Each structure stands twice: as structure tokens, then as C-alpha cells.
């Protein structure tokens, strides 16, 4: 099924970069390794649908090893922050310039949401199928997508970003699979953020139902990005099942508690062969930066921006925090020490 213009992130069955049986339908890459992001870039612009060849403006050729993934890459960070470098996020062969993914739930109004999306610099936003009318899907007219004016889908389209449907509100694998199928028809994409919740009090993922749903959806050709617990073993099972990424939580949804288990999050990042996207529980910019420093490939957040006192300003702060955290990870922090160590040597000091 050919995806519509919005987002242009649909996929079709085929050999994926991590053996997940999924290959990109649009936004093809000419890379030595689509999983790690090495090699020359050639992709479709998610905002305009135009083909872009070569590296982004200001690209350097650093050719270093990515300390977050262990992969060889051309060195990187958005040119506005570090001229001469680019740092693309690659998921299932699809490349994004921003490592921040924004959720759309909780915004006070659509105008504010649009401003926040723009300020965040994101190229991908999530939308719960239950928040839209599946019967009012996109219609093609002269090559342009048409959504009800003023709807959340219309807002997203006007912002020129991709859409990632999710299965929020599902409590069983059966519900999640059914919702994913509806989302594919409604949005014209095989990409799905998979959420299967255990209960309404904690909103924590149900690992048994989640893995069951993931296996089914991967088998049906979906590009599955599962919201999961910060459990390295479950993350490994989800990757083995063919998920295109794993999305461990920092803390329960909407709590704003930040990264509660940095050790487990780091373990997941170290063992994963697919992108690790920190999802849920981010409260402020320092939380997002920490997640990136621990080795996450990207951060997904919603409430931290949409319910902030100034959502637009917070969106910009999150953009910069993700960039800074990624740069710090690549730079390599100094080891922690028990005792102090002077930055200047004592040798050669004048004998006073």
C-alpha cells in the first residue's frame, strides 16, 4: 500500500536493515549500512517529498566511531549547533535529521501545538488513532492530501512533518493489532508505535501482550516501534521479534520523573542492534539530555512539552537538550573519580 504524502514513512515487506523483514517504500538510502547511518546520504525529504542527494548543508567528513552504537559514521550534529557536522537518525532504512520525536497529546490547542512542533525541529510526531476519525482519512486530489480543516491531521500536514500512529489505549495484543490495522488504512502507512498497557493506574507496558502483538504485526509487514519497560531482556526479545526499534520508558507516562533507572537504560543501549528511543516520563530538558548521554538514539516526549508553562519554549529547550546530549555521548565523558585530580600538573611549579 503506497503511503500518502503526509510523513511519507510507509513501508512494504522486504529485507530490513536489522533482519526485520521490512524495507522502506519511500526515503530510500544509498548507504554502506542503513542501520548505522554510514555512507553517503540520499533520501526523500519528509516535509516536501522531494529527493535529496548528498549530505546536509555544512556536512563534514569526520569518519569517527559512534560511541553510542559502536558503528563507524561520518561525524555529526545539526549545523545550527555544530557547523560542519550532521547526525541523522535511521530507523528501518528511513532517515531523520532530528533525534527528537514529539507526541501530540495534551496540547491546549492546535495553534500552540503547531508552534511547538516547529520549535522542536522534529520531523516525526505521534498520533493516537482514537483521537482521529478513521473514516476521514486522506484523499488524494491533484497529488495533495486533504484533511478536515482545523483537525489535528491538518495541523501536522501544515507543519510538514511525518506521522507515526500509535495504539494508545489498548490493553491486549488483539486490541493493539486491530488498532494497528485500522491505522494503516487511515494513515496510509505501515509504521506503528505499539502500545499495550497493563493497567490504567501505572500505564506500564504489559510485556506478555506487547511481545505477542509485536510478533503478529511484524509478521504482517508493519514497521513496529514498541513502547516497552526498561527491561533489557524484554528489549532483546522485541528486537529478535523483528521490531525496527525499541522504546524503553524513562518513567511512567506523564509523571515527568525523568530517567529512573539509568543503569538499565544504558544496558539496553549497549546490547541493542536497533535504535533505542527513550519514551515516556521525561520532565525537563536535562532528562532528555541524560537519556541521550546514556546512549539512546532518540527521545520521544509529549507531556513535557504540551503541558509545560510555555510549551513552545520547552519544545526549543528539548531540541537543544537532545542535540547536546547526543554530542556529549559522541564526545565521550571523562571517567568518574573518587578523588580530585588537578587539570594542571603540579610539576614545574615555581619554588616559592
UniProtKB/TrEMBL annotation:
Q: What processes does the entry annotate via GO biological process terms?
A: thiamine diphosphate biosynthetic process
Query: What catalytic activity is recorded?
Result: [ThiS sulfur-carrier protein]-C-terminal-Gly-aminoethanethioate + 2-iminoacetate + 1-deoxy-D-xylulose 5-phosphate = [ThiS sulfur-carrier protein]-C-terminal Gly-Gly + 2-[(2R,5Z)-2-carboxy-4-methylthiazol-5(2H)-ylidene]ethyl phosphate + 2 H2O + H(+)
Q: Which PANTHER family match?
A: THIAZOLE SYNTHASE
Alphabetized, the UniProt keywords read:
Cytoplasm, Schiff base, Thiamine biosynthesis, Transferase
Q: In which pathway does it act?
A: Cofactor biosynthesis; thiamine diphosphate biosynthesis
Which GO cellular component term is one of those annotated?
Answer: cytoplasm
Q: What is the protein's quaternary organization? A: Homotetramer. Forms heterodimers with either ThiH or ThiS.
Q: Where is the composition biased (Polar residues)?
A: 39-53, 62-74
Active site (record annotation)? 193
- GO MF, one annotated term: thiazole synthase activity
Q: Which residues bind 1-deoxy-D-xylulose 5-phosphate?
A: 254, 280-281, 302-303
- The UniProt record lists the EC number as 2.8.1.10
Source taxon at top rank: Bacteria
Specify the protein name. Answer: Thiazole synthase
User: What does this chain do?
Assistant: Catalyzes the rearrangement of 1-deoxy-D-xylulose 5-phosphate (DXP) to produce the thiazole phosphate moiety of thiamine. Sulfur is provided by the thiocarboxylate moiety of the carrier protein ThiS. In vitro, sulfur can be provided by H(2)S.
InterPro entries recorded: Aldolase_TIM, Thiazole_synthase_ThiG, ThiG
Q: Where in the cell is it found?
A: Cytoplasm
Instruction: Give the span(s) annotated as Disordered.
Output: 1-86
Q: Which family does it belong to?
A: Belongs to the ThiG family.
In what residue span(s) does the Thiazole synthase ThiG domain sit? 90-344
Amino acid at each position: 500500500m503506497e503511503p500518502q504524502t503526509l510523513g511519507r514513512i510507509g513501508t512494504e515487506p522486504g529485507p530490513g536493515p536489522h533482519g526485520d523483514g521490512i524495507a522502506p517504500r519511500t526515503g530510500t538510502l544509498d548507504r554502506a549500512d542503513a542501520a548505522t547511518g554510514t555512507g553517503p546520504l540520499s533520501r526523500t525529504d519528509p516535509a516536501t517529498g522531494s529527493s535529496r542527494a548528498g549530505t546536509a548543508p555544512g556536512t563534514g567528513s569526520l569518519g569517527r566511531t559512534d560511541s553510542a552504537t559502536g558503528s563507524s559514521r561520518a561525524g555529526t550534529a545539526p549545523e545550527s549547533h555544530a557547523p560542519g557536522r550532521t547526525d541523522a537518525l535511521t530507523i528501518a532504512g528511513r532517515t531523520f535529521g532530528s533525534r527528537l520525536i514529539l507526541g501530540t497529546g495534551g496540547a491546549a490547542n492546535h495553534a500552540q501545538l503547531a508552534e511547538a512542533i516547529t520549535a522542536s525541529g522534529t520531523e516525526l510526531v505521534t498520533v493516537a488513532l482514537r483521537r482521529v476519525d478513521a473514516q476521514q482519512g486522506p484523499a488524494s486530489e491533484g497529488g495533495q492530501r486533504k484533511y478536515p480543516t482545523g483537525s489535528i491531521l491538518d495541523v501536522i500536514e501544515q507543519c510538514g512533518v511525518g506521522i507515526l500512529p500509535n495504539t494508545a489505549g489498548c490493553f491486549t495484543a488483539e486490541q493493539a493489532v486491530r488498532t494497528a490495522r485500522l491505522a494503516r488504512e487511515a494513515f496510509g502507512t505501515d509504521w506503528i508505535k505499539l502500545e499495550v498497557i497493563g493497567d490504567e493506574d501505572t500505564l506500564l507496558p504489559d510485556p506478555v501482550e506487547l511481545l505477542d502483538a509485536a510478533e503478529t504485526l511484524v509478521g504482517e509487514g508493519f514497521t513496529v516501534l514498541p513502547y516497552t519497560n526498561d527491561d533489557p531482556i524484554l528489549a532483546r526479545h522485541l528486537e529478535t521479534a523483528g521490531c525496527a526499534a525499541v522504546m524503553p520508558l524513562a518513567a511512567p507516562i506523564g509523571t515527568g520523573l525523568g530517567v529512573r533507572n539509568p543503569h538499565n537504560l544504558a544496558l539496553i543501549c549497549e546490547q541493542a542492534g536497533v535504535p533505542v528511543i527513550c519514551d515516556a516520563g521525561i520532565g525537563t530538558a536535562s532528562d532528555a539530555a541524560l537519556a541521550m548521554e546514556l546512549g539512546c538514539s532518540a527521545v520521544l516526549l509529549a507531556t513535557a512539552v504540551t503541558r509545560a508553562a510555555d510549551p513552545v519554549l520547552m519544545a526549543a529547550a528539548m531540541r537543544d537538550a537532545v542535540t547536546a546530549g547526543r554530542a556529549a555521548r559522541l564526545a565521550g565523558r571523562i571517567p568518574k573519580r573518587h578523588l580530585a585530580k588537578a587539570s594542571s600538573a603540579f610539576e614545574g611549579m615555581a619554588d616559592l
